[in-house]
Amino acid sequence: MSLYSLQIEKHCLSGLLKNPDIFSDIDAFVTENDFYNKTHCTIFCVLRSLIISNEKFDHVVLAQKISNLGVRFYEEVDIFHYIDDLNFNQISRDTAIKSFRELNKLKVKRELCENLDKAKKFIYSKSKTEVIYK
User: Fold this and answer.
1) 94-97 long-range contacts, Cβ below 8 Å, gap at least 24?
2) pLDDT for residue 53 is more than 90
3) What pTM was estimated for this model as a whole?
C-alpha cells in the first residue's frame, strides 16, 4: 500500500490550474502538507497564492512565478515544461475535487503511520521487565 500518489497529486494540480474556482471547495481541507512531492507542494503554494490574490494567470504565468522564486528542485525539473504538461491534462472540475479528497486521505494515512511508528518506538524503548498497567 502506497501512502502517496504522484498521479493523484498531478490530477489535483491540473484540476486547480484548469478550474481555479474549485479552490473555495477544497480550501477547508487541503493544505500544502497534503502533497508528498516537494515540486508539487511548491506548485500548489504558488497556485493558491495566485488564486487568493485574485490574479489572472495561466500556465505560463504560473511557471514564471515559480521560476522567479529561484527554487531548485531535487529532481532538476524544467518547471516550464512540467507546468505545460500539467496544463495539457484534461480533468473535469468534479474529478479534480475527488482527487483532492483522495490526496487528503493519503496525507491522513501518512500521519497515522507516523504516529504508529512513534508509539512503537515508545513501547519498545521501555525496559522489557517494565509493565505498564492502568
Assistant:
1) 95/11, 95/15, 96/11, 96/12, 96/14, 96/15, 96/16, 96/18, 96/19, 96/22, 97/15, 97/22, 97/25, 97/26
2) yes
3) 0.84
